[in-house]
Each structure stands twice: as C-alpha cells, then as structure tokens.
C-alpha cells in the first residue's frame, strides 16, 4: 500500500508519497557526492580545504583557474542539461503514454540539432544564436511530427514511427550541412553533434540556467494536468482538464526545454529516454514525476561525464559517446521488454 505524508498550511494541503521523498533524497545525496568527487578528484587533486579557500576569494591562481574556469562550469552544465533532458522526456513519455515517446527517439532533439547546426555552419552563430535556432528547430520538428501523426488518427505507435522517420531525414540533412561547410565550422558542428561538455564556459551555464528558470516553473504548475493526461484523454476530460490547450502548452514547453539543453551541449543521447523510466521504477509510481526525474537526469549526466573524463585519461571523450553506449543497451532492453509485453 502506498504511504503518503500530508503537509498542511493555511488553505493548503499537500499529499506527498513517502517512497518518492526518500528516493529523491537518496538521488540528491548521490548527485552531490558525484559533484564533489568530480570537482576534487578528476585530474589534478584539489583538497576540499583549498576549494573552500578559492570559493572565498583566495587560493593560488592555477587552482582558481582549474576550479572556477574548468571544473565548476562543466559540472554545473551537466547538472542543468541532465535535469532539462529528463524533464522533457518525462513530459513526452507521459503525453504519449509510451516509454519510447522520448524527444531523442521521435526526432525533436534531432530537429533542435538541425537548427543549431544550420546556424553554426551557414551563419556562424555563437551560443546565443545557436540556442535560438535550436529552440526554433525543435518546435518546428515537433509540430511536423504531431501534425503528420494526427492525420493518421494520432495513435502513439504512429507518433513514434513518424518521429523516427523525421529524425532519419534530419540526420541526413545534418550530414549534408557538415559536408558542405568550411573545415573549421564542420569540425565544430561534428563535435557538437555528438554531445559534449568539453570546453564549455560559464556563458553556456548562464544561458541554460536563465532559460530553465523561465520554462520549468510553468511545467511544474501544469504537472497535475500532465498526470491526468497520462491516464488518457477521456479520463482527463471527465476531470475537467482542457485537453487540447493543456497538451499543446506542455508540448511547447517541453520542446523548448529540450531545445535549449541541446543548444548548450549538443544532442546528448538517451538521457531523456532513460531518466524518467529509471525514476518511475525507483519510486514505483504509475506516473512519471517531473522533479524526481530531473534529479535522476542530472545524476546520470554527471556520472556519464565522469566516465567520459576518466576512461581514456588524459584524453576526454564527449559525454554523448558514453550516454550513447549505455543508452543503446538500455534501448535494446526496453524494446525487448515492450515486445514481450505485447506478445505475453
């Protein structure tokens, strides 16, 4: 039986699932430990006492550069990107009522990548310009996929199949753009397309942080409607949910969140697919919950980046290589589980 904790305040009563609370707490503690280990021990050892001294404005110049210009921006961006991708994946999987309804499977991440690559290769855009182009590319791709899926009845299977087809076409477009670009722009775009945290500065952190501060609160306010939509449109309508408006609002916000994360680091694979489902299994919840999923996504990307930095040290792999390798195994398992469920 599910245990719930009721928190009361004047005019407010919140019912919180106890298991979800302690799972979220455990994930937060693990994420904090991973961040501390990454900041202290990856590469040149920085004792905690020296880190505290640097954060207070002291410390040696070389140590300040390592901590403030290299490690902290990277780990902060990993946290924000992982959380953003997980939230976006949780929304899409809830709306589609399918664990395969993830933005990187149905083409939305690839559409964001196309917009960003186009801006980099053709217009020479910087972080801000590529972010705007990624948002536009993701939203346009989402509208195309949903529009084509709706023409066939709007079934979940058709949505996934249409998204996979659109993603394949956009991959070809990205490859063509890179093949026709100048050598420096092509190299930059090719590395970006893998998904990487290498060389990222505070500028990327600020851009993504500001975007998420604007986009995530409305998603959290719509979380209750999302849970009702996950039960099905008929059930949601019977509970008074304005289905078309709510679905469109959630979709636009989730695409924008995914797009700005993609603009910051490139299309990091499988975090949006795996994090919500890992969270659902840990919390044993029938619905994907946004905040626990965000914590899981942040933890997954920090751990993946830790592996990317250490597995071939001193060389640093793009984090997308690690998430792609792990995510490929996860996707194979998920498809196998879906097949057994459909044929059981």
From TrEMBL:
Pfam assignment, any one: FecCD
Statement: the UniProt record of this protein carries the keyword Cell wall biogenesis/degradation: no
Primary location group: membrane
Membrane topology: Multi-pass membrane protein
Keywords, in A-Z order: Cell membrane, Membrane, Transmembrane, Transmembrane helix, Transport
Chain ranges passing through the membrane: 21-46, 72-93, 105-125, 131-150, 159-178, 204-222, 250-275, 287-308, 315-335
Gene3D superfamilies reported for this sequence: ABC transporter involved in vitamin B12 uptake, BtuC (1.10.3470.10)
Lineage: superkingdom: Bacteria
Subcellular location: Cell membrane
InterPro entries (UniProt xref): ABC_BtuC-like (IPR037294), ABC_transptr_permease_BtuC (IPR000522)
Assigned protein family: Belongs to the binding-protein-dependent transport system permease family. FecCD subfamily.
Protein name in UniProt: ABC transporter permease
């Amino acid at each position: 039986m599910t245990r719930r904790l009721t928190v009361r305040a004047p005019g407010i009563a919140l019912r919180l699932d106890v298991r979800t609370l302690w799972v979220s707490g455990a994930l937060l503690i693990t994420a904090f430990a991973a961040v501390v280990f990454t900041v202290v021990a990856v590469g040149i050892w920085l004792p905690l006492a020296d880190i505290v001294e640097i954060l207070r404005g002291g410390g040696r110049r070389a140590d300040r550069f390592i901590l403030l210009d290299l490690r902290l921006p990277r780990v902060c961006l990993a946290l924000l990107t992982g959380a953003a991708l997980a939230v976006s994946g949780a929304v899409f999987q809830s709306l589609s009522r399918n664990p395969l309804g993830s933005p990187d499977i149905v083409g939305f991440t690839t559409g964001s990548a196309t917009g960003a690559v186009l801006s980099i290769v053709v217009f020479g855009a910087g972080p801000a310009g590529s972010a705007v182009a990624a948002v536009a590319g993701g939203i346009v791709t989402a509208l195309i996929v949903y529009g084509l899926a709706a023409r066939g009845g709007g079934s979940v299977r058709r949505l996934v199949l249409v998204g996979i087809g659109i993603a394949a076409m956009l991959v070809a477009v990205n490859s063509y753009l890179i093949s026709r670009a100048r050598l420096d722009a092509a190299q930059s775009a090719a590395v970006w397309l893998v998904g990487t945290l290498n060389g990222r500065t505070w500028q990327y952190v600020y851009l993504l942080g500001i975007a998420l501060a604007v986009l995530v609160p409305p998603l959290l306010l719509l979380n209750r409607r999302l849970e009702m939509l996950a039960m099905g449109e008929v059930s949601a309508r019977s509970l008074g949910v304005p289905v078309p408006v709510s679905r469109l609002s959630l979709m636009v916000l989730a695409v924008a969140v995914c797009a700005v994360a993609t603009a910051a680091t490139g299309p990091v694979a499988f975090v949006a697919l795996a994090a919500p489902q890992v969270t659902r299994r840990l919390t044993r919840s029938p619905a994907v919950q946004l905040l626990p999923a965000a914590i899981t996504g942040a933890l997954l990307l920090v751990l993946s980046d830790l592996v990317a930095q250490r597995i071939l040290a001193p060389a640093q792999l793009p984090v997308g290589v690690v998430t792609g390798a792990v995510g490929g195994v996860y996707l194979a398992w998920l498809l196998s589980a879906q097949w057994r469920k459909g044929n059981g």
